[in-house]
């Protein structure tokens, strides 16, 4: 009798601990019984799915599947129907907070006699881990480029300097209207372009140390707008400035940040060949103590297949592009302790968001 009471007490404690674990787990936990009815839908599942538990519990799992879920939904049904547990299944799901990278796991639930009574799906948010992995991959790419640049930059520039000098001497032997002068002019332009690519290549590989000073972000933006207003006017692009006047000053290398902003505005203009609207917006995030700058256009957007590659060295969709502008911009912002992100929809437009920490030390 005492042994039975002790066993019951143990079972009750085990059940209590299991319930506490499920309720407070950071992973979304969804369980179904043999009838494929949802019997567990914890708080994390509510947060990730954006659906209250009372709308799900006691209802067929198929209804939740239709409403919300992607790859990870069928693995739970497969686990229950064919008895196959899954582990480390990666998926992307849409949540109230945006697209989330998740890792999904399933397992069978059995009673004390070994009979299957249901299945459990566990969904863990790995968005931060994925972002860190991407940063590591980018850092490795930059490291490889640095080694490559150090080895070839001077070897390429030395003969280019000689060729440029002899072409300039040769040009003096021909009259200004001579066709040979035109050929020489084209060759000199191409040499200048090669030198420009090498300069960006070296900046990417061995970025100069930022010479920082305290400044207002709006004054930098106004200067970039002034530099590009002629092109904006010619392309019939409407400019909207939405500045948050509560933005504090930031400590940045003004020339490097100008380079980033100019590159983003230039890209936005190129994305709107048949007029459009460019919105430059700032906002102060008091929780992160950072200033955010948004460059939003109403252009052609970016192909979803290209979104993951736009910051990669030499990736470009432009005929005349070097594929280094965004990569250099990414590196500059990274060296300022900030981050650069992009959201885009084809035929609707693109938004680049730069976050710069407020640090006056």
What tags apply to this protein structure?
five-stranded antiparallel beta sheet, Heat Shock Protein 90, 9 helices, Helix Hairpins, alpha+beta, Beta-Lactamase, 361 residues
Give a short overview.
This protein is an alpha+beta fold and 361 residues long. It has helices at residues 2-24, 43-49, 61-67, 71-82, 127-171, 179-205, 217-234, 254-270, 325-335, and strands at 28-33, 38-41, 89-95, 98-110, 116-125, 213-215, 237-242, 250-252, 276-285, 290-297, 339-345, 349-357.
Write the SSE topology:
Layout: H1 2-24, E1 28-33, E2 38-41, H2 43-49, H3 61-67, H4 71-82, E3 89-95, E4 98-110, E5 116-125, H5 127-171, H6 179-205, E6 213-215, H7 217-234, E7 237-242, E8 250-252, H8 254-270, E9 276-285, E10 290-297, H9 325-335, E11 339-345, E12 349-357
Parallel strand pairs: 7-9
Antiparallel strand pairs: 1-2, 1-5, 3-4, 4-5, 6-8, 9-10, 10-12, 11-12
Overall number of strands: 12
Distance between the termini: 71 Å
Secondary-structure-derived class: alpha+beta
Note the beta-strand portion. 15-25%
Query: What is the CATH fold-level name of the largest domain?
Result: Heat Shock Protein 90
Arithmetic mean of pLDDT = 81
Q: So, CATH architecture of the largest domain? A: 2-Layer Sandwich
Portion in helices: 40-55%
Largest sheet: 5 strands, antiparallel
């Amino acid at each position: 009798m005492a042994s039975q009471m002790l066993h019951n007490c143990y079972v009750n404690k085990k059940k209590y601990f299991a319930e506490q674990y499920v309720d407070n787990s950071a992973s979304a936990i969804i369980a179904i019984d043999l009838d494929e009815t949802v019997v567990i839908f914890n708080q994390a599942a509510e947060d990730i799915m954006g659906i209250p538990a009372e709308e799900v519990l006691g209802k067929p799992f198929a209804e939740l599947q239709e409403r919300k879920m992607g790859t990870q939904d069928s693995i739970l049904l497969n686990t229950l129907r064919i008895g196959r547990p899954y582990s480390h299944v990666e998926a992307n799901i849409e949540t109230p907070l945006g697209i989330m990278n998740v890792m999904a796991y399933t397992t069978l639930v059995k009673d004390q006699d070994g009979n299957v009574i249901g299945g459990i799906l566990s969904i863990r948010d790995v968005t931060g881990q994925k972002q860190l992995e991407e940063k590591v991959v980018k850092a490795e790419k930059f490291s490889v480029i640095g080694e490559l640049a150090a080895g070839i930059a001077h070897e390429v520039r030395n003969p280019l300097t000689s060729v440029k000098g002899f072409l300039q001497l040769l040009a003096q032997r021909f009259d200004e209207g001579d066709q040979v002068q035109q050929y020489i002019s084209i060759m000199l332009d191409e040499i200048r372009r090669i030198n420009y690519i090498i300069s960006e290549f070296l900046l990417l590989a061995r970025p100069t140390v930022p010479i920082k000073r305290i400044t207002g972000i709006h004054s930098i933006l106004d200067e970039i707008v002034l530099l590009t207003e002629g092109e904006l006017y010619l392309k019939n692009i409407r400019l909207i400035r939405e500045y948050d006047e509560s933005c504090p000053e930031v400590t940045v290398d003004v020339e490097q940040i100008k380079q980033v902003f100019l590159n983003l505005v230039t890209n936005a203009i190129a994305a709107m060949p048949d007029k459009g609207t460019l919105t430059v917006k700032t906002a102060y995030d008091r929780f992160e103590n950072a200033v955010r700058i948004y460059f939003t256009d109403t252009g052609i957007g970016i192909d979803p297949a290209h979104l993951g590659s736009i910051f990669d060295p030499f990736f470009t969709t432009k005929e005349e592009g070097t594929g280094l502008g965004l990569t250099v911009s990414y590196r500059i912002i990274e060296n300022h302790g900030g981050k650069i992100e992009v959201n885009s929809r084809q035929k609707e437009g693109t938004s680049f968001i730069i976050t710069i920490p407020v640090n006056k030390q």
